[in-house]
Amino acid sequence: MKFLTVSKIKDVFYTLPQAEQTKLLLAAVESLLAYKKKMGDKWHFYSDPGGSRIISVGEYNSFEEYSQSLQSPPAIVGYMYHESTPLIEADEKALKAYVESYKAAK
User: Fold this and answer.
1) Could you tell me which CATH class the domain 2-105 is placed in?
2) What is the pLDDT of residue 101?
């Protein structure tokens, strides 16, 4: 199962002292890098130019595995929220089946 996830830091995070913010962000980045190393080509992450959002696309064996991945790193998990969308492969065969089902529905 593939998922597209957009993660954003909650506003309450910015009420923390700067030293605590830095510590948590460094832990988050280290965790992202370790997770990327573990997952290899099954997981990709990106950041927007301002660094306010992390966009990831990952392939997981189950929904439980995916939901566990959202709980890392534990230190910053309470300061983030995630929007998730399951993805399917949109190859030529799938698109043809979609067009045929749409024609049949008319």
Assistant:
1) alpha beta
2) 87
